[in-house]
Design brief:
mainly alpha; 2 domains
């Protein structure tokens, strides 16, 4: 029981240390500028549409193949 109480007493100090370390690390972060954010956003949007088109084509091909196989086996 004594160990649990010590853990509870150390919690505020541990929390304060964690927040101080977090603030220190956040000061080291290099944030992108607006131009970089726009460029990477454009890349993400284009990539999403490219993958959507690719998966639509693959889905269509697989669907038609499965339907043909089913029709052949159902005869």
């Amino acid at each position: 029981m004594a160990g649990a109480l010590e853990g509870i007493k150390e919690w505020p100090v541990a929390t304060k240390n964690y927040i101080a370390e977090l603030q220190n690390e956040m000061r080291k972060v290099t944030w992108p500028n607006a131009k970089q954010v726009r460029a990477t956003t454009a890349v993400v949007i284009v990539t999403v549409f490219a993958f959507a088109g690719f998966f639509a084509i693959v889905d269509t091909i697989l669907s038609r193949t499965i339907i043909r196989v089913y029709d052949i086996l159902a005869k």
